[in-house]
Design a protein that fits this description.
It is built from eight helices and 14 strands. The protein is of the alpha/beta class. The chain has a single domain, classed as 4-Layer Sandwich (Purple Acid Phosphatase, chain A, domain 2), CATH 3.60.21. The strands form four sheets. It has a five-stranded mixed β-sheet. Strands 9-10-12-13-14 form a five-stranded mixed β-sheet. A hairpin with a 2-residue loop joins strand 9 and strand 10.
Length: 260
């Protein structure tokens, strides 16, 4: 699978509602990667060929952006480890892909479905070793009903409250069916319902609302046409922007511009 890098900068609340000639307007760059699939250096080890993707190239782009937009938030939307020989490092104390996130000072990681491929011990070890916030609103413990990960995090960026809500594909049990230890005591909920509840829980606590989801654009299986990225955008008008990975095409919805 290909890997993607994209960024978007949002003119925040103060720019939208204040005099554009004022000097105290804020610009925050929100930078997202998705489906990096073992790529640190821009090299495909299966074909022994150079590629255009990898955290080494991401770093170059991010550093250039930081020079222009010093107020920056970095998000990865999952599927870090699987592919491009990433599997050979699963016994490392910290996987090199998480080391890369830490080196680049990522603020958020939302686990994707392939991040469960190597078992919960592996995943949880790397979650603990990530220096940022690991977010997902639609994974709960089966026995207690409590959230497995934090559903959201609110960043204070120069006085502006930026809330980021994470979610992942709900079909991980189905895809990991032959390895039940990969999701032991976990349940994966409909992302639309979980995100709606999270938005309700944090009402009034944010100025900008960002979605970071590892979900198909229109959902699939029983969720098709019901709780994909497009349906989430239509159903939750509170979002200012949604970053979505998984679908090979990296989707960014600027919701105010689309009229949602």
């Amino acid at each position: 699978m290909e890997s993607f890098f994209l960024f978007i900068f949002i003119l925040l609340y103060y720019t939208i509602f204040c005099d554009p000639n004022e000097t105290d307007n804020n610009t925050i760059a929100i930078v997202a990667t998705s489906d990096m699939h073992g790529h640190i250096y821009p090299w495909d080890y299966s074909t022994d060929e150079e590629t255009d993707v990898g955290f080494a190239k991401t770093d170059t782009v991010v550093q250039n952006l930081k020079n222009k937009y010093p107020k920056i938030l970095l998000i990865d939307i999952g599927d870090l480890f699987q592919d491009n020989l990433g599997e050979i490092f699963i016994n490392n104390d910290t996987h090199p892909m998480v080391q890369a996130l830490n080196l680049l000072k990522y603020d958020v990681w939302v686990p994707g479905n392939h991040d469960f491929n190597f078992g919960l011990n592996f995943l949880e070890r790397n979650i603990q070793h990530f220096n940022g916030n690991v977010l997902c609103s639609n994974i709960i413990y089966e026995d207690s009903g409590k959230n497995y990960l934090s559903p959201y995090h609110i960043f204070d960026v120069n006085g502006v409250r930026v809330a980021i809500i994470g979610a992942t594909d709900p079909h991980i049990k189905q895809w990991e069916g032959s390895n039940s230890d990969h999701y032991k005591n976990l349940d994966f909920l409909d992302p639309l319902d979980s995100i709606k509840q999270t938005v309700k829980n944090i009402e009034g606590q944010y100025d900008i609302l960002v979605g970071a989801v590892h979900i198909m654009r229109n959902g699939e299986y029983e969720c098709e046409g019901k709780s994909g990225v497009f349906q989430i955008a239509q159903a939750i008008p509170e979002f200012d922007v949604i970053f979505a990975g998984m679908n090979i095409v990296f989707i960014v919805l600027i919701l105010m511009a689309l009229g949602f």
